[in-house]
Amino acid sequence: MIALDNVTLTYPGRTGPVTALAGTTLHVRRGEFAAVVGPSGCGKSTLMKLVTGLIRPTSGTVAVEGKPVTGPVKLAGMAFQNANLLPWRTVLANVMLPLEIVPPYRQRFSRDKAAFQDKAMALLNVVGLGAFADRFPWEMSGGMQQRASLCRALIHEPALLMLDEPFAALDAFTREELWCVLRDLWQKLGFTVILVTHDLREAGFLADTIHVMSARPGRIVETRAVDFPRPRDLDVCYTSDFTQLVHELRGKIAEARQAA
Amino acid sequence: MKMKLSAEDIAPVAFTVGLFVIWEAACRLFRIDTFILPAPTDIFAAMGKYWWPLLKNSFVTLWTTMAGFAIAVVFGIALGMVVGWSRTIYRGLYPVMIGFNSVPKVAVVPILIMWFGIGEIPAILTAFLISFFPIVVNVATGLATTEPELEDVLRALGASKLDIMRKVGIPRTGPYLFGALKVGITLAFVGAVVSETIGANAGVGHLMVQAGSNFQMPLVFAGLLALAVEGILMYAIFAAFERRMVAWAFRSSTGAGG
Question: Where is the ABC transporter domain (chain A) (predicted)?
C-alpha cells in the first residue's frame, strides 16, 4: 500500500543543507502494522510527512495505493505525542472535526450531524471515553486526551493511520493501557498503521514489522518481522522471545548511534 | 450559606479608600493649596455641584470613545486576519504598522482638526487610531501561532488553508482578541480625551481645559476622576465579556482527572 523507493530528502538548514533521509526504502502492506524505530533525530518524523504528502522528497518516489504522492494524501489520520485537541471544543466535537473537513462527510455534515454524533460516540465508547464526550480536553488527563486524539485520527475511517510517538508523554501504566486500546482498534477496523516510536517494547508488542533507522541522515538499516501470535496479550512482553527481540533491536540502535 | 468576604475581595475597595484617606490627610497636614492639589473632599464637592456638566460631557466622551473603538475593532480584526493569513503580507506590513504606531497620536490631532474641524470626529478618529494597533497585532499573532502539528493533522485530511483558518485559526484567536479589546478600550479613552483637550466643543477633556482656564482645580480633578471611573467600568465590561466568550482560555488545572 505504501512504497518509498530510494527516497532522499534534503532541506536548507541554518548552517547549510541538511540531509534528513538518504536513500530510504520502505514498503508497507495494506492492513499491516509497521513500526519505525531509531535514534532521536534520525528523520522518523520526516518519514511521516513524506508518506502523508505534507512534504515532497528531493529524490526518489513515494507512492500510496500505487499512486505517486504529489500532495497531502487526504486519507490519513494522524496523531502526535501532543494530543493537540482544540480547547474550545468538547471531546465529542474534537473527534468530529475530520468529518467537517474530509469529503464526502463534509458535504453531509449539517444534514447527518446526529448520525455522525452516534458514530463518534461509538468510537469514544470503544476507547472508554463514552462518559467524557461532553468534557473539554483540558478537564481530562493526558492519557484520556491521547485516547480522544486517536478517535479523531480514526473517525473518518482512514485507510492509513500515522502515529508519531503518540504515547511518549504518558506514564508507563497508561501507555500499556493505550497499547491495548490501539491494538483492539486496529484489529477491529483493519487500517494500515505506521507507528514512529522510541519505545522498543511498544514496537515489539504492537507491530507486524519493525524497521530500524540509522542516525541522520536516516535510512532503514534493518527490517524485522515480529511473529508473536495474534491477538497479543501484554504478557507477551514478559516472554524470553520478546526480551530477546528487544535486546537485539537495542543492539541495532546502539550500532546506528555509533555510526553517527 | 453565609457569603464570606475574603481579604482578596475587600482589597480593591480598601486600597482605593486608603488612597483617598492618605491624599486627604496629606492635603490637610501640609496645608496644600486647593489650587495646587485639591483634597478629595473638595473634588467630591465639585462633583456634587457640577454633576450635570460632568455627566453630560462624560456621555460625549463615552460615545466618541465607543464609536472610535467600534471602528478600531472592525478594522483591526479585518487587517489582523489579512496580516495573519500570509507571511509575505505580515513581513511587508509590519514595519509600516510599527512606524504608524510609533507616531504620537497627540501630534496627529491638530491635523485631524484641520481636516474635520473642531468637534467629535477628530476625537472618534483619535480613539480609533490609538486603539486599533493592539487589536491588529493580537489577531495576527493568534493566527500566526497555530500549532504546526495541528496544521499537519488537518492538512493530511485534505483541509484547505481556509478550512484551517475557520476551524482552528479564528477560534484560537479569541483569547488574543479579547485581551486586546481590554487594552484597546482604555487606549481609546486616552485618544478621545487627548483630542478633546486639543480642540472640541464638548467632552470631559474639553470640560477640564475650560475648568483649568477658570482656575477651578477641584473641577479639573473631578473630570479626571470621572474619566478614571469610566475607564474602569469599560475595562470591567470587556473583561466580563472576555470571560464569557473565551471561558476555555481561563481553564484551571483543578478539573483535570488523574
Answer: 2-240
How far off is chain B from A229, nearest CA to CA, in Å? 33
Write out pLDDT tens, residues A167-189. 888 888 888 988 998 999 899 88
Print the domain residue range for A118. 31-54+72-259
Please tell me the predicted confidence (pLDDT) of residue B61. Answer: 94
B25 part of a folded domain? no
Question: Residue B76 sits in which domain range?
Answer: 50-136+178-243
Q: Do A136 and B251 touch (CB under 8 A)?
A: yes
What distance in Å separates residue A213's CA from the closest CA in chain B? Answer: 22
Q: Indicate the number of domains in chain A.
A: 1
Q: How far is A77 from chain B (nearest CA, A)?
A: 7
pLDDT of B199 > 90? The answer is no
CATH at residue A183: 3.40.50.300
Q: Which residues of A touch B150 (CB under 8 A)?
A: 84, 86
Instruction: Show residues of chain B in contact with A72, CB under 8 Å.
Output: 155-158
Residue A59 located in a structural domain: no
Q: Tell how strand A59-64 and strand A2-13 pair up.
A: antiparallel
Nearest to A139 among B158, B249, B255 (CB): B255
List Cβ neighbours of B112 (8 Å cut-off, separation of 6 or more). B121, B122, B125, B126, B195
Evaluate whether residue B20 is within a structural domain. no
Residue B12 placed within a domain: no
- CATH number reported for the structural domain that contains residue B59 in this entry: 1.10.3720.10
CA A96 and chain centroid, separation: 19
Within a domain: residue B199? yes
Regarding an ipTM greater than 0.90, the answer is no
User: Are B158 and B196 contacting, i.e. CB atoms less than 8 angstroms apart?
Assistant: no
Is the Cβ pair B153, A84 closer than 8 Å? Answer: yes
Instruction: Give the separation between CA A201 and CA A167, rounded to whole angstroms.
Output: 12
Number of A–B residue contacts, CB under 8 Å: 79
Q: What is the pLDDT of residues A43-75, one digit of tens each?
A: 777 888 888 888 888 888 888 888 888 877 777
Q: For residue B147, name the pLDDT band (cuts at 50, 70, 90).
A: confident
What region does A74 belong to: left with phi over 0, alpha with psi -120 to 50, or beta? Answer: left
